[in-house]
UniProtKB/TrEMBL annotation, chain A:
Heterodimer of an alpha and a beta subunit. Keywords: Metal-binding, Prenyltransferase, Repeat, Transferase, Zinc. This is Protein farnesyltransferase subunit beta. Coiled coil: none annotated. Gene3D superfamilies: 1.50.10.20. Its cofactor is Zn(2+). It catalyses: L-cysteinyl-[protein] + (2E,6E)-farnesyl diphosphate = S-(2E,6E)-farnesyl-L-cysteinyl-[protein] + diphosphate. GO terms for cellular component: protein farnesyltransferase complex. The lineage of its organism: Eukaryota, Fungi, Dikarya, Ascomycota, Pezizomycotina.
TrEMBL record, chain B:
This is Protein farnesyltransferase/geranylgeranyltransferase type-1 subunit alpha. InterPro entries: Prenyl_trans_a. The keyword Magnesium applies. Its cofactor is Mg(2+). It comes from Lasiosphaeria miniovina.
Length: 507, 555
């Protein structure tokens, strides 16, 4: 095979690499700029130059990629003179501005927001979660969240996007998390658990997955959101007879076949698609891993259903240099929200791998070594977040990438990604965990059948620590609060809502 | 129906107009003796003032100059007019002769005996919607306004008649169990026009807010909208534009009644036009289409238009999915019908993908369509994908679709096999063809990960050893480990090479490849490469479990 003619020879390419390492194509000019203005920055050259291997062929994808890499390079290189950078060339987290931005997002939205009329519960979750991660006390929203949630709840179970909209899995998930975040009995009591259980039963499909709403699509969001709702609310797993998955033998429950459904969503690339037979996508990878991590210990469940090495290969490929951030799909651009969707997969993967060493794991994972200190470049992600994703104008908020407007969605998931990059999670291996109290959650769902409640599967015990390996490029004051790697809310909020419902007898 | 204006003094309305015009006629003769004014009055207030003045000749002059400032004749005239108007008791003080003279004079001079009030009430006409004194209108403007008010009254009466009639006939129809709405289309259309006209007039005259599109549509008269109620202090509340708020309130009402009707279909279209991600509306629409057995082609044609307008929308594609689910059984028996439908869909998908080549929803729908219509061996499908890969060899969505199209074909795949598992049913010829295809594309841009992932996937699926492509892969990596001469044309090749070495049991070379990736060629992923190095020491390891499985299958 001949070398493709459009590939430069090693010598010229190496020269380019050297040039790029200095910060750009134009050697002279870049040298002056870099050494003159920012002599003290310690920015590794992978974040300031182009990657060492590039193709000459130009297509739409490469044009878009080059453009964004170039733009990010300038942000990551600390070339914005209105900003203050630390000695690592990283700006501070504009905590106050982001806090203000998120409080505003909870206030009234102008008329042009009509397009999100079916996603208002998401605004509750995004804003309140973002504020929580930034250390704000959100309990003052308790009453307002409860009232808002109540207006979105349907008698037939679940929460819609707004008053009298059909109940939807995604909006129900968002409402339940928002209620968990503000906490308190007043918030928890909004939820009609019996109705939401019935509703989930009606959404459960014979193939194991969940529809997102009655008559709606079946996808992996449904699988993840259902699992979270079932767990947090400690719902009985029994199926109501109106469920499409119900069988006379009574051998099916709400979680039956869920792992198999997730398995069908893994693609040849190793990533996870939204529904079987589609393209691997970052957001769905998180849904898949989150869902599986709720079915049992990640070190056992994840390898049972997924090809872990291919998945890790694909997840790892999502991180790009020089940008440092994650993309959602092969050959797509980085986007701040994948800091959570992809970044948030790593704690679960690490848990999956670390379980293996303690001997309690499945055979499939038994052959895989534990992760090194980090499977992805935390430095890269943190640089991308702090340099490229912050709107540092007066407005505040976090965004997809430079040139995009900040919004609540990106603010939440960028901050969530920052949180996961700044912390590490350890999962107590299954055999070292204490069994859940046997009485909890075994209250019969109906008078005739004895229920297996969600609590019967012992919750894996997660322990969080700040991540201290290597150079810490961010200011200590910019470490944000940790959140639970599966539920995406702080650990104590998750415990509070779960314990509240564990203690309940019946619905 | 009486106008609901906030501003104008309605009750005085048309009556006033009439009165003033009759007065004008009566006062006319007086003009000869009154101060002569040839220019027409500029405003209504001025016209009124003139009329007042005409009733009281010499009064204006007197006010200006005082009684003594008037000529004797004028003084006489002024006094006579006063006497003529004063009560009989006052006049009785004059002798009979004087009274006769007075009346003769009054008669000759046509002095008005009855007069308008001397002082005008301030602002007798009220103000218009802009707060402007209607008295400051020109007579022409004023007449125009008056005409509009009359028009409005007439329209309101006709509209009321329409409603009453409809109400009556509906009652009768319901008693007789007939179709309740007996108003003909043209009557409804007339009424619609009428209300539009009325709304326009009310806005113009009184500044009334235009009523909602639906509230003034006779078609919706029988629906009581359920308005939006947001709890006090609710979060992220949207200040809905009026049209949207109105439409949603009607939607709630008809959904509550499970009304599947043509007007509801139009309502969904109207709402989707304002908010295309309102999933509730979409599902309602699907129910209507199915309940009314509306022609699939029509709905699809409409949907195509909407899809092109809202490229990023999620719901559109699920709607399409539901339509096809519903429609397919009717054509399933006819291969020609299926083929023609498939061709039509492919044409549309090409159009839309041209605008947004990696649209996730479109591709997901496309893979659904392949399975539903059984397009596995459809040459056009594969050709369409190849064309897209040719356009942009980095379009991973197209690669992904190709993998599905080729390796999920039920004719030569095993149901239930995971995507990253080998499938013994995959024919060698097809595996060969796909390996070759991927390799050809890799040559175009060796650092493009899509065909590398594809190649890897094909080899695993085909149960081939990764090593079967070693010569091809090795060509993209030169002098590995030689500091001066080492050259990597594709990091993905180096990655695959590491797997190949591991598969062969050459841990040292595999380790070197991974080390060089972390050290130099793909440093951002160093954590991953380090983990892969650790994998080399694990038992079944290599680059992944599937490599082990692949080896087992090959053996």
């Amino acid at each position: 095979m001949a070398r493709p003619s459009n590939t430069p020879s090693p010598s010229t390419r190496n020269k380019n690499i050297v040039d790029q390492a200095k910060g750009g194509e134009e050697e002279d000019e870049e040298e002056i700029v870099v050494s003159h203005i920012y002599p003290s920055f310690m920015i590794p050259d992978i974040f300031t130059g182009y990657p060492p291997v590039r193709d000459a062929l130009v297509t739409d994808s490469s044009v878009a990629q080059d453009q964004i890499a170039n733009e990010c390079r300038h942000f990551v290189a600390g070339e914005d003179d209105i900003l203050e950078y630390n000695e690592h060339g990283v700006p501070r987290l504009s905590r106050d501005k982001h806090i203000r931005f998120l409080h505003l997002a909870l206030g009234g939205l102008p008329g042009r927001f009509v397009a999100v009329d079916a996603s208002r519960p998401w605004f509750l979750y995004w804003a309140i979660s973002g504020l929580t991660i930034l250390g704000e006390d959100v309990s003052r929203y308790r009453n307002a969240v409860a009232e808002t949630a109540r207006s979105m709840q349907n008698d037939t179970g679940g929460f819609g996007g707004g008053c009298r909209q059909l109940s939807h899995m995604a909006t129900s998930y968002a409402v339940v998390l928002a209620l968990a975040l503000v906490g308190g009995e007043e918030a928890f009591e909004v939820i009609d658990r019996k109705a939401i259980w019935r509703w989930l039963c009606r959404l459960k499909q014979p193939d194991g997955g969940f529809q997102v709403c009655l008559g709606g699509e079946e996808d992996i969001r449904g699988a993840y959101c259902a699992a979270v709702i079932i767990k947090l609310l400690n719902l009985p797993l029994d199926l109501a007879p109106e469920s499409p998955a119900w069988t006379e033998e009574g051998d099916k429950n709400l979680l039956t076949g869920l792992g198999d459904y997730v398995r069908r969503c893994q693609t040849f690339e190793g990533g996870i698609s939204g529904q079987p037979d589609a393209e691997a996508h970052g957001a769905y990878a998180f849904c898949a891993l989150g869902c599986l991590s709720l079915l049992g210990h990640p070190s056992q469940v994840i390898p049972r259903y997924l090809d872990v090495p291919r998945l890790i290969a694909w997840l790892s490929s999502r991180q790009y240099a020089p940008e440092g951030g994650f993309s959602g799909r092969t050959n797509k651009l980085v986007d701040g929200c994948y800091s959570h969707w992809v970044g948030g997969c790593f704690p679960l993967i690490e848990a999956c791998l670390s379980g293996a060493t303690t001997g309690g794991a499945d055979l499939a994972a038994g052959s895989l070594p534990p992760a090194p200190e980090s499977l992805f470049s935390r430095e890269g992600l943190i640089r991308y977040i702090l340099c490229c994703c912050q709107d540092l104008t007066r407005k505040g908020g976090l965004r997809d990438k430079p040139g995009k407007s900040p919004d609540a969605y990106h603010s939440c998931y960028v901050l969530s990604g920052l949180s996961s990059a700044q912390h590490q999670w350890e999962l107590v291996p299954p055999e070292e965990q204490e069994e859940e109290p046997a009485s909890a959650g075994t209250e019969p769902a109906t008078s005739t059948t004895r229920s297996v409640a969600a609590a019967a599967v012992a919750d894996p015990l997660w322990v969080v620590l700040p991540y201290f390996e290597g150079v810490q490029i961010f200011d200590q004051r910019d470490r944000v609060r940790p959140i639970h790697p599966v539920y995406a809310i702080p650990h104590r909020n998750q415990q509070a809502i779960r314990n509240y419902f564990l203690a309940k007898e019946g619905f | 129906m009486p106008p609901k204006g906030k501003a104008a003094p309605k009750p005085k309305g048309s009556d006033t107009t009439k009165t003033s015009s009759s007065l004008t006629a009566a006062a006319q003769p007086a003009s000869s003796t009154a101060p002569n004014n040839t220019t027409p009055p500029a405003t209504i207030n001025e016209r009124s003032q003139r009329r007042v003045d005409e009733c009281q000749p010499y009064e204006a002059a007197r006010q200006k100059a005082g009684l003594r400032g008037l000529s004797q004749a004028e003084q006489f005239g002024w006094v006579s007019a006063r006497f003529a108007r004063s009560d009989a008791a006052a006049r009785s003080r004059l002798g009979p002769k004087s009274q006769r003279e007075l009346w003769r004079y009054v008669n000759d001079a046509s002095l008005p005996v009855r007069v308008l009030k001397k002082k005008l009430v301030s602002n007798p006409w009220g103000v218009d919607r802009n707060g402007r004194d209607i008295g400051s209108y020109s007579p022409a403007q004023f007449d125009d306004r008056a005409a509009k008010r009359i028009n409005l009254t007439v329209l309101a009466a006709a509209s009321q008649a329409f409603r009453d009639c409809r109400e009556r006939t509906k009652k009768i129809a319901l008693d007789d169990q007939q179709n309740p709405d007996v108003a003909t289309d043209s009557e409804v259309q007339e009424e619609r026009e009428r209300r539009r006209e009325m709304a326009k007039l009310r806005k113009e005259l009184y500044g009334d807010k235009m009523p909602g599109k639906l509230a003034q549509d006779p078609e919706w008269d029988d629906v009581l909208p359920i308005p939006h109620e947001e709890p006090e202090g609710s979060l992220a509340a949207i200040s809905y534009p009026d049209d949207y708020a109105e439409a949603i309130s009607y939607l709630r009402a008809v959904m509550e009644n499970k009304e599947y009707s043509p007007r509801c279909l139009r309502l969904t279209e109207y709402i989707i036009g304002m908010n295309s991600s309102h999933y509730t509306v979409w599902l309602f629409r699907a129910s209507i289409v199915i309940a009314l057995k509306l022609p699939f082609v029509d709905e699809l044609a409409w949907l195509n238009k909407v899809a092109l307008e809202h490229l990023k929308n999620y719901q559109i594609w699920h709607h399409r999915h539901l339509l096809v689910e519903n429609y397919y059984p009717s054509i399933a028996g006819s291969p020609e019908a299926v083929a023609s439908f498939a061709a039509q869909e492919q044409a549309f998908l090409s159009d839309i993908l041209e605008q947004d080549t990696k649209n996730y929803h479109v591709w997901s729908y496309r893979s659904y369509l392949v399975g539903k219509l059984g397009l596995w061996d459809n040459a056009a499908e594969l050709a369409a994908i190849e064309a897209m890969i040719k356009d942009d060899v980095r379009n991973n969505s197209a690669w992904s679709h190709r993998f599905y199209l080729v390796f999920s074909n039920p004719a030569h795949s095993t149901a239930g096999t995971a995507a990253t598992e080998p499938d013994p049913a995959a024919p060698a010829a097809i595996v060969d063809r796909e390996v070759q295809y991927a390799q050809d594309k890799i040559h175009l841009a060796p650092q493009n990960q899509s065909p590398w992932n594809y190649l890897h996937g094909v080899l695993v699926k085909g149960g081939r050893k990764l090593g079967s492509v070693e010569p091809f892969v090795a060509d993209f990596v030169r002098h590995l480990g030689d500091d001066d001469k080492e050259d990597v044309i594709s990091t993905h090749a180096l990655d695959l090479l590491a797997e190949i070495y591991a598969e062969k049991g050459d841990k040292e070379k595999a380790d070197l490849a991974l080390r060089r990736l972390g050290e130099k060629w793909d440093r951002i992923r160093i954590g991953y490469w380090e983990w892969r190095r650790k994998c080399l020491e694990s038992p079944a390891a290599a680059g992944g479990t599937e490599a082990g499985v692949a080896a087992a299958v090959a053996a």
